[in-house]
Amino acid sequence: MASRLNPYLSYDGTAKQAMEFYQSVFGGSLSLNTFGEFGDSKAPEADKIMHGSLETPSGFTLMGADTPPGMEYKPGNTMSVSLSGDDAKELRGYWEKLSGDGTVAVPLEKQMWGDEFGMCVDKFGVSWLVNISTPGS
C-alpha cells in the first residue's frame, strides 16, 4: 500500500456520534473500536472510541477517537478538512449535510478565482472547506 495522509480528529466523548454522522454524509464502511475492547471493560471510558476509521466510496479515509484519559482535549482553529473536486452535485451534497446543523463561515458560492467555495464548522466543531472547481480549471 502506498503512503496516505488521513485526517485524524479528536473528540471529548462524542467520537461515536461524530463518526456515524460522517458516515451518513459520505457513506462507506465505518469501523469503531472502544477502549474497553483493548483494556479494562469496566473502566469509565470503556464505551468510548479508542479508534474509528471511515473508508468512503470516493476514496476518503477519515479517522477519529475520543481523547484518552490523562490527555487534554483542547479544540482549536488550527486545522480544517478540505474537500475539493469538480463533481458539483457530490460536493454540494456533502456541504448541505456538514453545514446543516453547523455554522457557515463563508457561504458556498462562486468566488473571485472562479470556483465555488464555502467554509463551515459542523455540529461537532470540525472546520470544513469545500471547493468546487469550474470546468476546465
TrEMBL record:
<dbReference type="InterPro" id="IPR028973">
    <property type="entry name" value="PhnB-like"/>
</dbReference>
<feature type="domain" description="PhnB-like">
    <location>
        <begin position="5"/>
        <end position="130"/>
    </location>
</feature>
<protein>
    <submittedName>
        <fullName>VOC family protein</fullName>
    </submittedName>
</protein>
<dbReference type="InterPro" id="IPR029068">
    <property type="entry name" value="Glyas_Bleomycin-R_OHBP_Dase"/>
</dbReference>
<dbReference type="Pfam" id="PF06983">
    <property type="entry name" value="3-dmu-9_3-mt"/>
</dbReference>
